[in-house]
Amino acid sequence: MAALELLNDSLADIAAKLRDRRITARQLTEAAIAAKEQAGADLAAYKIWDPDRARALADAADTLFDAGTVLGPLQGIPCSVKDLYAMSEYQTHAGTPKPLPPKWQADGPVVQALRRQVAVIPGKTHTVEFAFGGIGTNVHWGAPRNPWDAANHRASGGSSSGAGVSLCEGSALVALGTDTAGSVRIPASVTGNVGVKTTFGRWSLDGIVPLSPSLDTAGVLARTVADSALAFAALDPRITEAPERFVERLAGFSAGNLRLGICDEHYWDDCSPGVAEGVKAAVDELVGKGAELKRLAMPEPLDVHEIFLKGGLPAVELFTFLKLELPDWLETLDANVRQRMAEAETLPASEYLSRREMLDRLSASVDDRLRAVDVLVTPTVAVTPPTLEELADGDAYRRANMLSLRNTSSVNYLGLCAVTLPVALDAAGMPVGLHLIARNGEDEKLLAVALAVEQALGTGRQRIGRPPLAAG
Asked: Are 93 and 108 in contact, with CB atoms under 8 Å apart?
């Protein structure tokens, strides 16, 4: 079997082959390393790339397999980790120019879940500085390149900017990200991958550098919904059954019994050519296969967006964290990050509390509306990911950033969970994501719906092919 072909199967099939010893973790890891080396360009997914440590972890996983010990479906699987997660062997920069204090080098529960399964961690992927941005740029370390454009350096989405790229190049089969306003779903969407935004509080945030403690969530990216569901089950502390059994149990939905909500407000406006059209075509396919489409009046996202445009909660919460714990890092902030915190220092406490109170009321209202459907469907990202040249002007960056975050941020602010999956290419040839939004706490149901949608529409690779700059 050619080395890169080892990476082509589903995560479940690869895990089974590892257990049955039809392949070894070392072979799989060497394939992932070769894929990164053979990608058509330097995609710059990683802040830290450590193939030797990856090989050592693969050998440890193989030793356990050979002894008949299987610790989980991620054993021996290459998994990238965003450089917002603390890890004992690597310094954490969080996208900043210098390492954070030693406190941010202690594994938290999500990384510990990878460790317990002896996953192969080849390195830490790039992030926007302190995760505060949806485009994926970083003045200190540069921006990973979106592998879907062979001619131009396009943004890969933020803030988990290297996560989706690591999946595209094949150096990882699972990627850990974080999502405060879209930072898992945006990079997943614009790189043609699947991203899962968990319900707030579902996964521990310990060991993750905070942006907004009121909104931060840990999440996972993978190549397909099926892969994402398996990775979710392998990492989720509430799931006690075998992850493989969990995924099997999610198969109760089909396109024929889905109730899809759609609203005309907010999410569909000002989309780049091909974005809304691609998502609507996918929705029409689902309806053609029996799904029910129900129109919902949903004004709440418009109200949320007004709060978001004022800085929401993250600006003041990040500024407070930096002032109290990392004051020296304020001096070197990226101008695009600093500008978004400009009013945080002088924001009255009454305004901050008023925003929180309003978000609580809007969350309750949306939760009630979503009872009528299984999920709300929208485009994930309204705009084509821009080229770096298009972002050279500060005002241009701010406009692009706000539009990139618009459809995803309301999910965090309203306390919901969501999945994005690739369904089309836009007029520029860039991936378009279908955004599935579910009620607070309905993570399992959301994944079941997303599996049914993927089974009905096909995987991203089946629908949109491979990125031009990916290996294989």
From this structure: no
Number of domains in the chain: 1
Q: Taking a C-beta distance cutoff of 8 angstroms, is the pair 243, 117 a contact?
A: no
Active site residues: 82, 159, 183
Q: Is residue 373 part of a domain?
A: yes
Range of the domain at 270: 3-464
Residue 262 sits in a domain of what CATH number?
Answer: 3.90.1300.10
Output the average pLDDT for the chain. 96
Phi, psi (deg, nearest 5) at residue 436: -110, 120
* End-to-end alpha carbon distance in the chain: 13
Is 471 a domain residue?
no
Q: DSSP assignment of 173-222, as one string?
A: SEEEEEESSSTTHHHHHHTT-EEEEPPTTSS--TTB--S-TTT-EEEEEE
Q: Contact 180/131 with Cβ under 8 angstroms?
A: yes
171 CA to centre of own chain: 16
Backbone angles phi, psi at 309, to 5 degrees: -65, -25
- Answer whether residue 28 is part of any domain: yes
Residue 204 lies in a domain: yes
- Measured in degrees and rounded to the nearest 5, phi and psi for residue 202 equal -65, -45
Q: pTM, whole model, 2 decimals?
A: 0.98
Task: Show the tokens assigned to 339.
Answer: 């500008």
**How far are the Cα atoms of 257, 338, 396 from residue 283, in angstroms, in the given order?**
14, 39, 32
The model's pLDDT over 275-328, given as tens digits with 9 standing for 90+, comes to: 999 999 999 999 999 999 999 999 999 999 999 999 999 999 999 999 999 999
